[in-house]
Fold this protein.
Amino acid sequence: MTTLEQKSKLLSRWLRHRPDAIGLELDKRGWVDVAELLLKSADAGVVLTQDELMQIVVENDKQRFSLSEDQMRIRAAQGHSVDVDLKLPVKTPPPVLFHGTVQKFIASIRRQGLLPGTRRDVHLSATKQTAAEVGARRGTAVVLTVETYPLLHDGYQFRCAENGVWLIPDVPPKYLRFPDK
Ligand code: HQG
């Protein structure tokens, strides 16, 4: 049996990275029809009811999924590797944001700055705590500080996903503050 948590992880995978795994096509803003998603999921052997889907959307710890206003379509709020443009509005960030990572990436980040890797954007967190949790997925977290004013001053644009994750295409090293030790 597939648990609700497993179904939620599959949804993340399909809506961010591998829609093709169940024959889905995201539109250019990342949306799919809920009805089509439920059908294709069942065809792929994962029975997901409308109620379960709504429960996943509402209860998801990081609010990873967004529903359209009419609730007919769903998309991942952020974290895509597939080519979508969510058209999130540009937004002024708080003066300081944080990025959680691990020591083994630090030398490379000092050289290249923060790069999005396989995702479409670099993810920044509004609190140190959240950044520490993001870093801790990979080991002992190292939290970098990003002063946003110099980036804004130099023309960088920030967007904020519906779940509060801040997105920026990249952050060159000169805008990053590394922990002392
Ligand atoms: C690192 C999770 C070497 C970067 C989280 C990170 C987040 C570099 C990794 C969301 C680098 C990319 C995103 C450079 C960045 N050289 N390494 N120049 N620039 N990195 O998973 O930010 O559970 O794509 O520090 O909570 O860790 O999936 O990004 O360690 O919100 O919903 O390269 O994923 O949310 O890793 O995490 P990721 P992330 P979900």
Q: What stands out?
A: Residues 62, 64, 79, 101, 105, 108-109, 112, 114-115, 117, 119, 123, 134, 138, 165 surround HQG (CB under 6 Å).
